[in-house]
Write a structure and sequence with these properties.
mainly beta; RNA Polymerase Alpha Subunit, Chain A, domain 2; five-stranded mixed β-sheet; single chain
Length: 315
């Protein structure tokens, strides 16, 4: 009884009151901690980087982060990935050397009163680069081969160059940009594509292409070779039943023809004819008339030298 009475007497003193208050504070602290120590982990939160004007992020060690929160059930109830913003302000960093940012509560904006327990990863490594623009030519890529006997005569790309905008370190090494491959298998007619897409190069995630597509005109022709036949005699073409005396100056010409290689291999001068049409002239007049050619099937006239001759009728 004496101990119980002494205890009550002590608790009534100033020091006793202080002891009771301290014990009560500890009990309340543990109660509050228990009520506010519910935990939740929000994963794969997108990490936004703010570079300086005219700069861009070319490397980041992590594009998302995980954040663990502590709080009451009400604090944690409405937390979700869409409502949490993770941002790193790199506007004061203007060089292209890698640097590290330690992540903390200042980088996280979340609704409610929940507190951050930890962030994973705790730090990220960044590298920035200047934004530039560059004009580069468009290169047409093809796949497979044209059928035998056909070839590409001309390729026209519109526009012939496009503008790239992006990090300087990436664009400094870019000399051209290619189209998606054009399949030539079985093609015997020319190709016209109005919106053929351009293929981004490696590390082009932050590069803008303007325009992103071009027009392609690709002319396909039959493959041919040309052959020159010199000193070909020039023959007059007369009306039926008519005989004329005439002079043709010059009386020989050089004939150039073209055709598929297999035809040209067997072509001889005897297979060709040069003539001048004199059916419309009369009297002793002199006329400048064009040369014409009679050629086998599959052979095309390139030119005659000369292209005209002088014809004078004799009495």
């Amino acid at each position: 009884m004496k101990i119980h009475r002494k205890t009550l007497e002590f608790l009534g003193t100033r020091n006793g009151i202080r002891l009771v208050a301290a014990i009560a504070a500890v009990i309340v602290w543990f109660a509050i901690r228990a009520a506010t120590s519910n935990a939740t982990l929000i994963t794969d939160i997108p990490l936004a980087i703010q570079p300086p004007p005219d700069w861009s992020v070319v490397a980041c060690s992590s594009k998302t982060i995980d954040v663990a929160f502590l709080g009451t059930r009400d604090d944690l109830r409405y937390l979700n990935r869409e409502l949490i913003k993770a941002t790193v302000d790199a506007r004061g960093h203007e060089d292209n050397q890698p640097f590290t940012v330690v992540l903390g509560a200042a980088h996280i904006n979340a609704p409610g009163s929940a507190r951050i327990d930890f962030i994973r990863p705790a730090a990220i490594t960044l590298r920035l680069d200047r934004e530039i623009t560059k004009q580069v030519p468009v290169k047409v890529e093809t796949q497979n081969l044209l059928p035998d006997g056909y070839e590409i005569e001309k390729t026209v790309v519109t526009p012939a160059t496009v503008e790239l905008s992006g990090p300087a370190q990436i664009l400094d090494e870019v000399e051209s940009i290619s189209t998606v491959p054009v399949d030539l298998d079985g093609r015997i007619r020319s190709i016209n594509k109005r919106r053929i897409q351009l293929v981004p190069g490696e590390n082009f995630a932050d590069v803008q292409i303007d325009p992103p597509a071009v027009t392609l005109d690709l002319a396909i022709v039959e493959r041919s070779v040309s052959t020159l036949f010199p000193d070909m005699p020039i023959l007059p073409m007369l009306a039926p039943g008519r005989a004329l005396r005439m002079e043709i100056e010059p009386d020989v010409a050089t004939l150039t023809v073209k055709g598929r290689p297999e035809l040209m291999k067997t072509l001889a001068a005897e297979d060709l004819r040069l003539f001048v049409d004199v059916t419309e002239i009369s009297g002793a007049q002199s006329s400048e008339l064009p040369l014409r050619a009679v050629l086998p099937n599959g052979i095309t006239l390139v030119r005659t030298e000369p292209s005209t001759v002088n014809v004078r009728l004799k009495d």
